[in-house]
Design brief:
With 269 residues, this protein is an alpha+beta fold. The protein contains 3 helices and 17 strands. β4 and β5 form a beta hairpin. The structure holds 2-acetamido-2-deoxy-beta-D-glucopyranose (NAG) (3 copies).
Protein backbone atom coordinates (compact mmCIF):
# COMPACT_ATOMS: atom_id res chain seq x y z
CA UNK A 1 0.00 0.00 0.00
CA UNK A 2 2.61 2.51 1.10
CA UNK A 3 4.97 1.49 -1.70
CA UNK A 4 2.19 2.10 -4.26
CA UNK A 5 1.51 5.51 -2.76
CA UNK A 6 5.20 6.28 -2.74
CA UNK A 7 5.48 5.19 -6.34
CA UNK A 8 2.50 7.38 -7.31
CA UNK A 9 3.91 10.44 -5.54
CA UNK A 10 7.34 9.83 -7.04
CA UNK A 11 5.75 9.59 -10.45
CA UNK A 12 3.78 12.81 -9.80
CA UNK A 13 6.95 14.58 -8.72
CA UNK A 14 8.77 13.47 -11.86
CA UNK A 15 5.84 14.52 -14.03
CA UNK A 16 5.76 17.95 -12.34
CA UNK A 17 9.50 18.41 -12.87
CA UNK A 18 9.24 17.42 -16.54
CA UNK A 19 6.29 19.80 -17.07
CA UNK A 20 7.99 22.68 -15.28
CA UNK A 21 11.26 22.31 -17.18
CA UNK A 22 9.87 21.49 -20.63
CA UNK A 23 7.44 24.40 -20.83
CA UNK A 24 9.14 27.73 -20.32
CA UNK A 25 5.72 29.43 -20.58
CA UNK A 26 4.19 27.61 -17.64
CA UNK A 27 4.68 30.64 -15.43
CA UNK A 28 3.86 33.30 -17.97
CA UNK A 29 2.75 36.59 -16.48
CA UNK A 30 0.19 38.62 -18.41
CA UNK A 31 0.39 42.38 -18.49
CA UNK A 32 -1.15 45.05 -20.66
CA UNK A 33 -0.49 48.67 -21.49
CA UNK A 34 -2.23 51.32 -23.52
CA UNK A 35 -0.32 52.35 -26.63
CA UNK A 36 1.98 55.36 -26.13
CA UNK A 37 2.15 54.88 -22.36
CA UNK A 38 4.85 53.17 -20.26
CA UNK A 39 4.77 49.46 -19.36
CA UNK A 40 6.52 47.47 -16.62
CA UNK A 41 7.30 43.79 -17.28
CA UNK A 42 7.80 42.14 -13.89
CA UNK A 43 10.88 40.08 -13.00
CA UNK A 44 12.64 39.09 -9.80
CA UNK A 45 16.04 37.46 -9.19
CA UNK A 46 16.05 38.08 -5.45
CA UNK A 47 16.52 34.34 -4.76
CA UNK A 48 19.64 34.11 -7.00
CA UNK A 49 21.17 37.31 -5.71
CA UNK A 50 24.83 37.36 -4.70
CA UNK A 51 25.57 40.23 -2.38
CA UNK A 52 28.84 41.44 -3.96
CA UNK A 53 27.70 42.35 -7.52
CA UNK A 54 24.57 43.30 -9.41
CA UNK A 55 23.17 40.53 -11.61
CA UNK A 56 23.74 40.35 -15.36
CA UNK A 57 20.28 40.36 -17.00
CA UNK A 58 19.01 39.73 -20.53
CA UNK A 59 15.55 40.49 -21.86
CA UNK A 60 14.47 39.40 -25.31
CA UNK A 61 11.42 38.55 -27.36
CA UNK A 62 11.19 35.42 -29.51
CA UNK A 63 12.93 37.23 -32.39
CA UNK A 64 14.65 40.32 -30.96
CA UNK A 65 17.05 41.35 -28.28
CA UNK A 66 15.43 43.98 -26.07
CA UNK A 67 17.92 44.78 -23.35
CA UNK A 68 21.05 43.50 -21.64
CA UNK A 69 22.39 44.98 -18.45
CA UNK A 70 25.76 44.22 -16.80
CA UNK A 71 26.35 46.59 -13.94
CA UNK A 72 26.47 50.08 -15.43
CA UNK A 73 26.71 48.84 -19.02
CA UNK A 74 23.48 48.54 -20.88
CA UNK A 75 22.68 47.42 -24.42
CA UNK A 76 19.32 48.22 -26.04
CA UNK A 77 17.96 46.39 -29.08
CA UNK A 78 17.38 48.45 -32.23
CA UNK A 79 13.58 48.58 -31.89
CA UNK A 80 13.91 49.55 -28.22
CA UNK A 81 16.48 52.32 -28.50
CA UNK A 82 15.92 54.96 -25.77
CA UNK A 83 12.76 53.17 -24.67
CA UNK A 84 13.89 50.18 -22.59
CA UNK A 85 15.51 50.09 -19.17
CA UNK A 86 16.20 47.83 -16.21
CA UNK A 87 16.98 50.46 -13.57
CA UNK A 88 20.23 49.65 -11.81
CA UNK A 89 19.00 50.82 -8.40
CA UNK A 90 16.18 48.24 -8.61
CA UNK A 91 18.41 45.51 -10.04
CA UNK A 92 20.78 45.77 -7.04
CA UNK A 93 17.83 44.71 -4.91
CA UNK A 94 16.98 41.80 -7.24
CA UNK A 95 14.20 43.55 -9.16
CA UNK A 96 14.95 42.90 -12.85
CA UNK A 97 11.65 44.37 -14.17
CA UNK A 98 11.83 45.76 -17.69
CA UNK A 99 10.58 49.33 -18.09
CA UNK A 100 9.34 50.26 -21.57
CA UNK A 101 8.45 53.78 -22.61
CA UNK A 102 6.06 54.90 -25.35
CA UNK A 103 4.70 51.40 -25.97
CA UNK A 104 3.95 50.50 -29.61
CA UNK A 105 1.55 47.95 -31.07
CA UNK A 106 4.60 46.11 -32.42
CA UNK A 107 5.83 45.65 -28.82
CA UNK A 108 3.01 43.19 -28.11
CA UNK A 109 4.14 39.61 -27.52
CA UNK A 110 6.14 37.32 -25.28
CA UNK A 111 9.22 38.61 -23.45
CA UNK A 112 11.72 36.43 -21.59
CA UNK A 113 14.25 37.40 -18.98
CA UNK A 114 17.47 35.48 -18.20
CA UNK A 115 20.11 35.69 -15.54
CA UNK A 116 23.61 35.34 -16.99
CA UNK A 117 26.35 33.95 -14.75
CA UNK A 118 29.79 32.42 -14.91
CA UNK A 119 33.38 33.37 -15.73
CA UNK A 120 34.16 35.82 -18.54
CA UNK A 121 34.61 33.14 -21.25
CA UNK A 122 32.24 30.42 -19.99
CA UNK A 123 28.78 31.91 -19.62
CA UNK A 124 25.57 30.21 -18.67
CA UNK A 125 22.11 31.51 -18.25
CA UNK A 126 19.04 30.72 -16.17
CA UNK A 127 15.57 31.42 -17.40
CA UNK A 128 13.74 33.73 -15.00
CA UNK A 129 10.44 34.94 -16.33
CA UNK A 130 8.09 34.96 -19.30
CA UNK A 131 5.83 37.96 -19.69
CA UNK A 132 3.09 38.37 -22.24
CA UNK A 133 2.55 42.03 -23.08
CA UNK A 134 -0.73 43.12 -24.67
CA UNK A 135 -0.91 46.60 -26.19
CA UNK A 136 -4.35 48.18 -26.38
CA UNK A 137 -5.72 51.28 -28.08
CA UNK A 138 -7.44 54.21 -26.37
CA UNK A 139 -11.21 54.59 -26.59
CA UNK A 140 -13.37 57.41 -25.30
CA UNK A 141 -16.73 59.13 -25.61
CA UNK A 142 -16.79 62.90 -25.23
CA UNK A 143 -19.49 65.51 -25.03
CA UNK A 144 -18.63 69.12 -25.87
CA UNK A 145 -20.86 72.19 -25.88
CA UNK A 146 -21.18 74.27 -29.04
CA UNK A 147 -18.63 77.09 -28.95
CA UNK A 148 -16.27 75.26 -26.58
CA UNK A 149 -12.90 73.72 -27.56
CA UNK A 150 -12.50 70.02 -28.28
CA UNK A 151 -9.19 68.60 -27.03
CA UNK A 152 -8.02 65.37 -28.64
CA UNK A 153 -5.12 63.52 -27.04
CA UNK A 154 -2.48 62.31 -29.51
CA UNK A 155 -0.69 60.46 -26.64
CA UNK A 156 2.61 59.88 -28.45
CA UNK A 157 4.84 61.02 -31.30
CA UNK A 158 3.68 57.81 -33.04
CA UNK A 159 0.56 59.83 -33.97
CA UNK A 160 0.80 60.51 -37.70
CA UNK A 161 -2.71 61.46 -38.70
CA UNK A 162 -6.11 62.39 -37.29
CA UNK A 163 -9.13 61.45 -39.37
CA UNK A 164 -12.74 62.46 -38.84
CA UNK A 165 -16.09 60.97 -39.78
CA UNK A 166 -19.09 63.29 -39.57
CA UNK A 167 -21.88 61.54 -37.68
CA UNK A 168 -24.16 61.97 -40.71
CA UNK A 169 -21.68 60.72 -43.32
CA UNK A 170 -19.80 57.53 -44.04
CA UNK A 171 -16.54 58.91 -45.41
CA UNK A 172 -13.44 59.92 -43.49
CA UNK A 173 -11.63 63.21 -43.95
CA UNK A 174 -8.04 63.90 -42.90
CA UNK A 175 -8.14 66.56 -40.22
CA UNK A 176 -4.49 66.72 -39.28
CA UNK A 177 -1.19 65.24 -40.50
CA UNK A 178 2.11 65.31 -38.65
CA UNK A 179 4.01 67.10 -41.39
CA UNK A 180 1.07 68.31 -43.43
CA UNK A 181 -0.16 71.74 -44.49
CA UNK A 182 -3.52 70.84 -42.93
CA UNK A 183 -1.72 72.08 -39.81
CA UNK A 184 -2.37 75.66 -40.86
CA UNK A 185 -6.13 75.62 -40.44
CA UNK A 186 -6.77 78.37 -37.90
CA UNK A 187 -9.34 76.39 -35.89
CA UNK A 188 -6.78 73.62 -35.34
CA UNK A 189 -3.93 73.92 -32.88
CA UNK A 190 -1.40 71.37 -31.64
CA UNK A 191 0.07 71.64 -28.18
CA UNK A 192 1.99 68.99 -26.15
CA UNK A 193 0.66 65.87 -27.88
CA UNK A 194 -2.81 67.40 -27.99
CA UNK A 195 -4.90 68.59 -30.92
CA UNK A 196 -7.28 71.44 -30.14
CA UNK A 197 -10.33 72.20 -32.27
CA UNK A 198 -11.51 75.71 -31.48
CA UNK A 199 -15.15 76.69 -31.08
CA UNK A 200 -16.86 73.50 -32.20
CA UNK A 201 -20.24 73.43 -33.91
CA UNK A 202 -22.73 70.66 -34.55
CA UNK A 203 -20.81 69.68 -37.69
CA UNK A 204 -17.88 68.59 -35.48
CA UNK A 205 -20.00 65.76 -34.03
CA UNK A 206 -18.67 62.39 -35.10
CA UNK A 207 -15.77 59.98 -34.71
CA UNK A 208 -12.11 61.01 -34.48
CA UNK A 209 -9.30 58.49 -34.97
CA UNK A 210 -5.62 59.05 -34.25
CA UNK A 211 -3.58 56.81 -36.57
CA UNK A 212 0.01 55.63 -36.45
CA UNK A 213 2.39 55.14 -39.38
CA UNK A 214 0.81 51.75 -40.21
CA UNK A 215 -2.69 53.26 -40.20
CA UNK A 216 -3.63 51.52 -36.94
CA UNK A 217 -5.91 53.47 -34.60
CA UNK A 218 -4.02 54.60 -31.49
CA UNK A 219 -7.20 56.21 -30.28
CA UNK A 220 -10.88 56.43 -31.21
CA UNK A 221 -13.01 59.21 -29.73
CA UNK A 222 -16.72 59.57 -30.34
CA UNK A 223 -17.70 63.21 -29.94
CA UNK A 224 -21.17 64.60 -29.41
CA UNK A 225 -21.53 68.37 -29.71
CA UNK A 226 -24.39 69.50 -27.53
CA UNK A 227 -26.32 72.76 -27.63
CA UNK A 228 -25.98 74.82 -24.47
CA UNK A 229 -29.81 74.85 -24.26
CA UNK A 230 -30.09 74.02 -20.61
CA UNK A 231 -30.57 77.64 -19.37
CA UNK A 232 -32.86 78.72 -22.22
CA UNK A 233 -34.96 75.61 -21.77
CA UNK A 234 -35.53 76.23 -18.07
CA UNK A 235 -36.34 79.90 -18.78
CA UNK A 236 -38.87 78.85 -21.38
CA UNK A 237 -40.34 76.32 -18.97
CA UNK A 238 -40.68 79.01 -16.26
CA UNK A 239 -42.38 81.41 -18.69
CA UNK A 240 -44.72 78.64 -19.77
CA UNK A 241 -45.70 77.77 -16.22
CA UNK A 242 -46.19 81.47 -15.37
CA UNK A 243 -48.49 81.77 -18.39
CA UNK A 244 -50.27 78.61 -17.30
CA UNK A 245 -50.90 80.12 -13.87
CA UNK A 246 -52.24 83.32 -15.45
CA UNK A 247 -54.68 81.36 -17.60
CA UNK A 248 -55.69 79.33 -14.58
CA UNK A 249 -56.53 82.47 -12.56
CA UNK A 250 -58.44 84.04 -15.44
CA UNK A 251 -61.84 82.39 -14.94
CA UNK A 252 -62.25 83.45 -11.28
CA UNK A 253 -61.13 87.01 -12.13
CA UNK A 254 -63.59 87.29 -15.01
CA UNK A 255 -66.25 85.80 -12.80
CA UNK A 256 -65.64 88.52 -10.22
CA UNK A 257 -65.81 91.17 -12.91
CA UNK A 258 -68.95 89.63 -14.28
CA UNK A 259 -70.45 89.52 -10.80
CA UNK A 260 -69.52 93.14 -10.14
CA UNK A 261 -70.89 94.28 -13.47
CA UNK A 262 -74.08 92.34 -12.82
CA UNK A 263 -74.46 93.94 -9.39
CA UNK A 264 -73.79 97.38 -10.81
CA UNK A 265 -76.44 96.82 -13.47
CA UNK A 266 -78.90 95.64 -10.82
CA UNK A 267 -78.23 98.72 -8.69
CA UNK A 268 -78.65 100.97 -11.72
CA UNK A 269 -81.98 99.40 -12.52
C1 LIG B 1 10.03 46.19 -9.16
O1 LIG B 1 9.91 47.57 -9.11
C2 LIG B 1 8.73 48.09 -9.66
C3 LIG B 1 8.81 49.61 -9.64
O2 LIG B 1 9.10 50.09 -8.37
C4 LIG B 1 7.53 47.56 -8.92
O3 LIG B 1 6.36 48.03 -9.51
C5 LIG B 1 7.56 46.05 -8.92
O4 LIG B 1 6.50 45.54 -8.14
C6 LIG B 1 8.87 45.52 -8.41
N1 LIG B 1 8.89 44.09 -8.64
C7 LIG B 1 9.36 43.23 -7.75
C8 LIG B 1 9.31 41.79 -8.14
O5 LIG B 1 9.81 43.59 -6.68
C1 LIG C 1 -16.73 63.34 -47.85
O1 LIG C 1 -16.94 64.33 -46.87
C2 LIG C 1 -16.67 65.66 -47.25
C3 LIG C 1 -16.87 66.56 -46.07
O2 LIG C 1 -16.74 65.89 -44.87
C4 LIG C 1 -17.58 66.07 -48.40
O3 LIG C 1 -17.27 67.36 -48.79
C5 LIG C 1 -17.37 65.08 -49.54
O4 LIG C 1 -18.29 65.38 -50.54
C6 LIG C 1 -17.57 63.65 -49.09
N1 LIG C 1 -17.20 62.74 -50.15
C7 LIG C 1 -17.93 61.69 -50.46
C8 LIG C 1 -17.40 60.87 -51.60
O5 LIG C 1 -18.97 61.39 -49.92
C1 LIG D 1 -21.81 67.27 -40.69
O1 LIG D 1 -23.09 66.98 -40.24
C2 LIG D 1 -23.90 68.09 -39.98
C3 LIG D 1 -25.19 67.59 -39.43
O2 LIG D 1 -24.99 66.93 -38.22
C4 LIG D 1 -24.08 68.90 -41.23
O3 LIG D 1 -24.88 70.03 -40.96
C5 LIG D 1 -22.72 69.34 -41.72
O4 LIG D 1 -22.83 70.02 -42.95
C6 LIG D 1 -21.79 68.18 -41.90
N1 LIG D 1 -20.47 68.69 -42.13
C7 LIG D 1 -19.62 68.16 -43.00
C8 LIG D 1 -18.30 68.79 -43.07
O5 LIG D 1 -19.91 67.22 -43.69
Amino acid sequence: MTTTNNRISAFLMLWLIICASSSPFSGVVHTSSKVGLPAVLPCSVASHLESDHTPHIQWHTISYSVLERMGQDQFQGEAYRDRANVPEELLVRGNCSLFLQDVRFSDAGIYESYLVYGESNIKNRIFIQSVHLAVIDHKAIKSVETGADLILDLYTHQAEQVIFQNSTETNWTVLWEKDGIINNKDYLKKRDHKLILRRVTNSNSGTYKVLDLEGLALSTVKVKVTEPVLIKETEALEKQSALGQATMSMPPLSLITLFLTFNLMLQMN
